[in-house]
């Protein structure tokens, strides 16, 4: 049996998709990954084959820097980083206006490239990142069955009047005005209309007789796999979802790093901090987290990403500070974590039974923060306005969950230990 995985050339997308595919690898099946060259080393580390596929302008092998990207993509990233400093609505507005070039890069060419790969690889099953719209367009046009993996909050696949790019819920600390929300929704609706026109125009080239769609963002594959814990899912959306499986998380097995293991063994309790591949550029927020941890008397393991550690002030000698850290391993030993609310961080933390302080900056991170707040599995704050004292209080709160909440979080982690996300995906595709 051969499984084909289709991913953008971004580590944050490829890692969970590749982890899903380990369910086939571990059963001695062939796995081929179609992605770009930046993540070739990641593909190799999983023991998979790689075939070249370009699905967008940019790439990211682990930590993203605007200066490492093509000019257009670098300019887009700088604009995004600037928008995060202005606020939530400003960031979502910027992302909405960038969406056509972000998500439908050379759609006909990319779709045809995917179909050529399928002819060459002859897969028995196909796993595709939901945000690989051009790839899914090709599969849709050719009538090829695939598993559609939604990485992020489930609202990344809008249902029942939802609009892509407009959060269906917000954490208490971030409450935009009704006027700002109305303007944002109107913009997202216009972008959705234009995106759908682009999808339909490309589809007309690929399959002239194919049925057009009314909302390209709401299109999905026959099998939808949500990389998300069911315990965080909004119960009000359940009946509206397409046939689906909640994977919980896709926690990969990371190679042992002896110095990290020694640090864990010697450190006692600690909190893990990471803002992921993109948002680690917000060194100003990381600095406040550092200062808050000192006040709260908390030891940290910090993945600084694109922020120079020198920007964080004087750091205690018993902290673990690196640009990149083995996140899954550290979450497996941490008492809590501080995150921007990215899908990998949230799902891996819940799968490890780790409560979160979440500081959402963009996209579906606001809805994800609201879900953590609703379930009691985390405390959400505005990254631009949260004070050092408020961050210290949030750290203390997640380190002292009430017994009921602690029990529910432990049960969520135990459910994922009993049946992993990759095994749930394998069962879904075998049915």
Helix content: 40-55%
Low-confidence regions:
62-69
CATH topology of the largest domain: Rossmann fold
Calculate Rg over CA atoms. 21 Å
Query: Helical segment tally?
Result: 16
Query: What is the average of the pLDDT values?
Result: 93
The count of domains is 2
- Beta-strand content bin: 5-15%
User: Order of SSEs, N→C?
Assistant: EHEHEHHHEHEHEEHEHHEEHEHEHEHHH
Tell me the name of the CATH homologous superfamily of the largest domain. Answer: Glycogen Phosphorylase B
What would your notes on this structure say?
The chain has 16 helices and 13 strands. The protein is an alpha/beta fold and 431 residues long. It is globular and about 65 Å long. Residues 62-69 have low confidence and may be disordered. The strands form 2 sheets. It has a 7-stranded parallel sheet with strand order 3-2-1-4-5-6-7, sandwiched between helices. The chain has 2 domains: 2-247 and 420-430, 3-Layer(aba) Sandwich (Rossmann fold); 258-418, Rossmann fold (3-Layer(aba) Sandwich), CATH 3.40.50. The chain is 46% helix and 13% strand. This is Glycosyltransferase family 1 protein. One of its GO terms (biological process) is antibiotic biosynthetic process.
């Amino acid at each position: 049996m051969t499984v084909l995985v289709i991913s953008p050339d971004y580590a944050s997308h490829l890692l969970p998709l590749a982890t899903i595919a380990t369910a086939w690898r571990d059963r001695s099946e062939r796995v081929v990954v179609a992605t770009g060259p930046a993540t070739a080393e990641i593909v190799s580390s999983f023991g998979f084959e790689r075939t070249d596929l370009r699905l967008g302008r940019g790439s990211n092998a682990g930590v993203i820097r605007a200066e490492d990207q093509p000019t257009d993509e670098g300019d887009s990233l700088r604009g995004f980083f600037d928008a995060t400093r202005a606020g939530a609505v400003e960031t979502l507005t910027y992302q909405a206006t960038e969406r056509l070039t972000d998500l439908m890069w050379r759609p006909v060419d990319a779709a045809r490239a995917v179909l050529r790969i399928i002819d060459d690889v002859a897969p028995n099953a196909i796993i595709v990142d939901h945000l690989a719209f051009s790839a899914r367009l090709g599969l849709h046009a050719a009538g090829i069955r695939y598993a559609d993996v939604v990485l992020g909050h489930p609202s990344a696949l809008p249902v029942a009047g939802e609009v892509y790019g407009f959060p269906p819920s917000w954490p208490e600390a971030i409450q935009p005005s009704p006027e700002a929300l109305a303007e944002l929704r109107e913009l997202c609706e216009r972008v959705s209309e234009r995106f759908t026109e682009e999808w339909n125009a490309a589809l007309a080239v690929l399959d002239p007789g194919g049925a057009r769609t009314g909302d390209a963002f709401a299109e999905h594959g026959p099998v939808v796999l949500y990389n998300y814990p069911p315990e965080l899912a909004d119960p009000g959306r359940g009946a509206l979802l397409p046939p689906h499986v909640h994977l919980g998380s896709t926690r990969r097995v990371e190679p042992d790093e002896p110095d990290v293991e020694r640090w864990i063994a010697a450190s006692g309790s600690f909190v893990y901090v990471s803002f992921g591949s993109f948002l680690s550029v917000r060194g100003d927020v990381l600095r406040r987290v550092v200062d808050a941890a000192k006040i709260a008397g908390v030891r940290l393991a910090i993945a600084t990403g694109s922020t120079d550690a020198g920007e964080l002030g004087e750091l205690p000698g018993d902290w673990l500070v690196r640009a990149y850290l083995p996140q899954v391993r550290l979450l497996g030993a941490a008492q809590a974590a501080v995150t921007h609310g990215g899908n990998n961080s949230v799902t891996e933390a819940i799968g490890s039974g780790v409560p979160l302080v979440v500081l959402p900056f963009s996209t579906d991170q606001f809805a994800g923060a609201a879900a953590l707040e609703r379930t009691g599995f985390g405390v959400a704050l505005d990254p631009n306005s949260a004070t050092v004292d408020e961050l210290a209080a949030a750290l203390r709160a997640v380190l002292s969950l009430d017994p009921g909440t602690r029990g529910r979080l432990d049960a969520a982690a135990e459910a994922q230990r009993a049946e992993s996300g990759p095994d749930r995906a394998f069962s879904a595709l075998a049915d």
